[in-house]
Amino acid sequence: MTEEKLWMPEDAVPAGIKNLLIPDSPNKKINYILAFIQIVRLLKTQKRTGWVDHNIPNASVESISDHMYRMSIISMVIPNNEINIDKCVKIAVIHDIAEALVGDITPFDGVTKPEKHRREFESIKFLSSLIEPYNPKFSKDIVELWLDYEEIRCIEARYVKDVDKYEMIQQAWDYEQEFGFQYKLDQFYESRSAIKSKEIGELCDEVIRQRTILQKSLAN
């Protein structure tokens, strides 16, 4: 019985992008950052697995970049003078960037939490190595911002965690307004109980209130 090969980010890089990754090339600096930019583009086409699993029509399923972009806007919109909004936006933009290579792993995919973390961290380090020849500062920043989020190392990360949950709840409500209640999305609203930020909680509560009103009107 052969041992299963350990997943590594290099193996997930599309062949066309791999052609740019020649360590001794005189154009290494520019080619590596071009490779990074092309890898990030994959987030535009990676569908969010939770919606796919709940049978949302493929044309309407948001991408990972859709999710992160709206999270960034939400982080800017909410008035809170106690946090660094710029850092929140950076964390929101970076927090799922590893999924360009890893994909959107859910608890139903058979990948353990430690293995999911390992794959994502390996991907972040790999992306950092592509950035480093071109921009050493951002190379370090991308790792630190990702760790901030994963380990909730600052108040901004805690805030963005809440924004992440709210954006998912809002997306569920968006789908229900578009398609009615034909898809069973109740479980996504359960994330409300984990939200700690007052402002984000208030947005969730209003969404849930509007949803309840619509459900009652349809039941009559």
From TrEMBL:
One of its GO terms (molecular function) is 5'-deoxynucleotidase activity. GO terms for biological process: deoxyribonucleoside monophosphate catabolic process. It is an enzyme of class 3 (hydrolase). InterPro entries: HD/PDEase_dom, HD_domain, YfbR/HDDC2. It catalyses: a 2'-deoxyribonucleoside 5'-phosphate + H2O = a 2'-deoxyribonucleoside + phosphate. It comes from Debaryomyces fabryi. Homodimer. Belongs to the HDDC2 family. This is 5'-deoxynucleotidase. Transmembrane segments: none annotated. Its EC number is 3.1.3.89. Residues 64-169 form the HD domain. Catalyzes the dephosphorylation of the nucleoside 5'-monophosphates deoxyadenosine monophosphate (dAMP), deoxycytidine monophosphate (dCMP), deoxyguanosine monophosphate (dGMP) and deoxythymidine monophosphate (dTMP). Keywords: Cobalt, Hydrolase, Magnesium, Metal-binding. GO terms for cellular component: cytoplasm. Its cofactor is Co(2+); Mg(2+); Mn(2+).
